[in-house]
Structures are given as structure tokens and as C-alpha cells.
Amino acid sequence: MSMIPQKVRWLNLEYLFDQLLNLLRWLWILIKKLILLLADVPIKAYFIIAGFVFIAVMAFLFFKLRKLERKIKIASMVSFKEEEKLPQDRSGKWKDIKNKINSDSIEDWKEAIIMADSILDDIFSRMGYKMDGLGEKLKNIEPSDFASLQEVWDGYKVRSKIAREGARFDISHEEAKSVLAKYEKGLKELKYI
Asked: What is the torsion angle, in degrees rounded to the nearest 10, for the CA atoms of residue 134, residue 137, residue 141 and residue 145?
């Protein structure tokens, strides 16, 4: 039996070190050329570019701040009924709705959706939207002010079908849960639950 391995595999550290040095030399030359290129540009150009960057950053921050102010204003406008002032009271009402959606009765599912719709309608009324029904209120809400607007709008469409068709309207359990999840997203954004 031979003690010498058949294939010798080894790492050439000299080669790797040389490649690393070549890379560093290349980067150093690139940095020097960039510095020389920038040195040819008059100092006024630097101030002009810095001014435009500053103005762009300030405009970006201004619009972000305005958007944040609107969201804070809307959040401060949310008020709840006297019997729902405490989060426990609101979560209890929401648990009742969740129990209805988890039952085996299609009528309970429909009632849970209508109850969630009613809560949102009441919240928006207290915020100052005095139109009739949640649909009209949703039409008057700015999408940037209510991130869950589209989800709530989709849920409202199903709720409208329930109201129009009544007992004739057929809804699957999964669809009812999906609709309630859309309302839940809106209620969470408004800090109801």
C-alpha cells in the first residue's frame, strides 16, 4: 500500500495574494483617475449639484411629512362609542363577530359581515363622514389616508349583495372569512381591534 495520495489538491496562496494585490492596484488607479477627473470640475459645479440634491431631499421629506400628518390627523379623529371606549369592550364585540363567522350557519356568516360593516360605518361617521352608508363614505376617503381602503371596499361589495339579495345570496364559508378578514384589516388600521 502506498502512502502517497493519488491526487494532490492544494491551495496556491502566492497566486491568491498576487491576484488580491492586482485588484487593489486596479482599484487605487481607478480612485486616482476619478479624483483627477473631479479635480477638473469647477467648485461651483459641486455647490450646484449639492444644492439640487439638498432640494430634492427636502421635497421628499416634505411630502412624506405631509402624508404622515394626514395619517396622524385621521388617527386622532377616530373616536369610539361610550360603551366601546376600552379596548376590551371592542375586542369582546369583535370576538362575537368571529364566533359568528366560525359557526356552521350561513346566516351567522352574513350577520358577522353586516356587523363588521356597521362598526366601520359608525367609525367613519364619528370621523366626520356624514354621507349615507359605508359605500358613500368610502368614495370620499382619500386612498393615501386609509391604506386598507381597497380591501374594505371589496368587503363592502359583498355586504351590499347580502343586503340586496338577502336569503337568496349564497356565500361559501371561505369567502365569508375572506370578507371578514378585509374588514378586520381596516378595523386594525383604525385601531378598533
From this structure: -50
Do 39 and 106 share a domain, yes or no?
no
Query: Do 87 and 30 belong together in one domain?
Result: no
Low-confidence stretches of the chain (pLDDT < 50) are 1
User: Do residues 113 and 179 lie in contact, with contact meaning Cβ atoms separated by under 8 Å?
Assistant: yes
- Do 109 and 135 lie in one domain? The reply is yes
Q: 134 near 120, Cβ under 8 Å?
A: yes
Indicate if 26 and 102 belong to the same structural domain: no
Q: In terms of pTM, does the model score above 0.90?
A: no
Terminal CA-CA length for the chain: 77
CA distances from 167 to 61, 106, 110 (A): 52, 9, 9
Express each pLDDT in 30-67 by its tens digit. 999 888 887 777 778 778 888 999 999 999 999 988 88
Q: What is the pLDDT of residue 181?
A: 92
Contact between residue 172 and residue 130 where contact means Cβ atoms under 8 Å apart? no
Residues 175, 114 share a domain: yes
Question: To which H or E segment does residue 107 belong?
Answer: helix 106-126
Q: Are 175 and 158 in contact (CB under 8 A)?
A: yes
Confidence (pLDDT) at 5:
55
Per the structure, the complete domain to which residue 23 belongs is given by 13-75
Number of independent structural domains in the chain: 2
In a domain, 4, yes or no: no
* Measured CA angle at 168 (ends 167, 171), to 5 deg: 85
pLDDT for position 30: 94
